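Final report, closing paragraph on structural work. Over the funding period we assembled a curated collection of sequence-structure pairs, and we close with a single example.
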Amino acid sequence: MSAGRVVLVTGASNGIGYETVKAFLKSPNPYYVYLGSRSLEKGKAVLEQIHAECPDTTNAVELIQIDLGSDESIERTAFEVVKNGQGRLDVLINNAGGGFDLDFMQGKMSLRESFNKSYDLNVSGTNVVTWTFVPLLLKF
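Its predicted structure, as stored:
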């Protein structure tokens, strides 16, 4: 078990998620942060970048693959990593998400496909992540 709070940030390979992970690493409070990324390849590059930007951190960060569009990725991969690693989760930051308006506007998908893909990722995926991690969030 970790001495500090255990945090999972989804969608942490760029933007707000990336900056959130950095903030936890720069904190004087103890944290063990799971950096959630859909792509392991991109996540590894981001992890290297974060280590370069936060060289003096005393907090830990670990890459975890999690794709909100895949129940297997959420339930059998990410959940198992946290359960078998730190064994609990104190903070879940559901940051992963996306929009597909541009794909619709460029004729790459229909309006219905755009709405369905957005809903699946931003609503269904986020709720599946929360539901799956509740047992680890409730551990004391």
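The beta strands are 5-9, 31-37, 60-65, 91-93. The chain has a mean pLDDT of 95. We thank the funder for supporting this effort.
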